[in-house]
Structure formats: C-alpha cells, structure tokens
C-alpha cells in the first residue's frame, strides 16, 4: 500500500496518473494547502519542503521499512523503477527519459507556475512579469511541440513518466497559449487526456477539492507569504 499525500495541483496529478495506470494499491491523504496543512509536523516528516505530493511506500521492493519520498519527479522515478513500468529498459532510453523528466522539473513546471501566479493570482498585474513568463511558457511549448513532431510520446513510441510529468502542466487557457500554434503538442495532449487512467486520475479532483482556486486573503497569505521559520531562541 502507498500513502499519497496529495492536493489538486499539476504536481499532484503526476502521481495519480502513474498510480491509476499501474493499479498499484494506494490511499489518498488530502493535504489542503490553502488551509496550511502542509506545515503540520506529520506531513513535514515525509516532505520537509512542505510541498505536495509526497508518498510513503509501505511495501518497498527490498522488503524493508517503509520509504518516504518527496518531489514529484523523484516519486515518478521511484515508482517506475519499483514496477518496471513507464520507463525504458535500455541505458540510452533511460538517458532520454531522464533528460525530459528533468526538463519538466527544472523548466516547464517552474516557468508555467510563475505564469499562473502573475497572470491569475498576483494582486498587482505587472506587465513585464506577465510577458516574461507567458513568453517563456510559449518557448517551452515550442520545444515540446518540436520534440513530438516525429514520435507519439516524449521518449518515443511508448508512454512514460516523462509524459506524465509534463501533461498536467500543459494548461493553455490558464497560461495564455494558443494550442493551434502547436499541432504536435495538441495531438499528444488529446491522446493522453483520452486514456482511461487519465480520466480516473482527474475524476479524483471532484472528491477532494471540487472548487479549486484561491478564494480568500488567508489562503493567499498561506500560499504566497511563506518564509523560513525563525530559529529557536530568535525573536
């Protein structure tokens, strides 16, 4: 059994996509990030960066004590290696996958996240910041569109964790993008969206957080006002 500490964000969806594809037994532990549940000691013991998702695998492959893992890319890689699924079985294929998994973690996710923030959540609309991140998201869409020009999925013929990592971050309406400019990306996105496991993964949203978004100033403060906690003994 795997405990999945989850909220309805793109990074959270990455892991439900994998778990639904493989039918690994899991239970969801909702972490309402708008209420600050990511700062509870029991969650920090699993995810010291106070971010979802995180997992605890109670049946690791080595038969030892439960393993806790944070960071969505690390979780996907762990689960792929545990199951032998959605990861190439050759050294060259693995290199291809790791490049694109890291591309998502270091590029598409952070840049699209800043896009979301300045377009949709920042109390002050700063044209420079909006243009900066909308344009960078556009560039990254273009990179992925070119990659998909001669292959059905990011690594090649087979669906992989590289696709699962990137798919939830392709949100053209929220990111100021026109998918008609990216026909290969559009085809890829539609293919993944139609997979039964993807449908099941996104259906989970309704039972966890049917009305996503930031609704109050308190939620805004919790999500966007975080700083390091003061050290013990400091005022």
Automatic annotation (TrEMBL):
PROSITE patterns with a match to the protein in the record: GST_CTER, GST_NTER
Pfam family, one: GST_C
Cited InterPro entries: Glutathione-S-Trfase_C-like, Glutathione-S-Trfase_C_sf, Glutathione_S-Trfase, Glutathione_S-Trfase_N, GST_C, Thioredoxin-like_sf
GST N-terminal domain ranges (all copies): 1-87
Domain GST C-terminal residue range list: 90-214
Family that this chain belongs to: Belongs to the GST superfamily.
Protein name per its UniProtKB record: Thiol:disulfide oxidoreductase
